[in-house]
Design brief:
alpha+beta, elongated
């Protein structure tokens, strides 16, 4: 079994308020949840123009973990209203 933790730091250029930010993140988190991963806003909660989101999932083997991570990464990269600044992942 492979546990993978991935984190993305996002810029939210169209967010003029925390309410705008929450709207973008809620949409992204809902879409990610459909991939059977656990997702949470893991930092920068009080900053309206930036966000940090983390995903954790369990896979049977490394190839499956790579596939899931690639799919989730594409989804985050294509999120409306968000631009990926940095990302990282680790296997536990």
């Amino acid at each position: 079994m492979v546990v993978t933790l991935a984190t993305w730091e996002l810029a939210l250029p169209g967010s003029g308020s925390l309410k705008d930010k929450r709207s973008v993140l809620r949409s992204l988190k809902d879409r990610l949840s459909r991939k059977n991963v656990s997702v949470a806003e893991s930092g920068l909660q009080d900053h309206r123009g930036r966000a940090r989101i983390s995903v954790v999932f369990l896979a049977a083997h490394s190839a499956q973990a790579d596939s899931i991570l690639a799919s989730v990464d594409r989804m985050v990269a294509s999120a409306r209203g968000a631009v990926v600044i940095a990302n990282s992942s680790e296997r536990l």
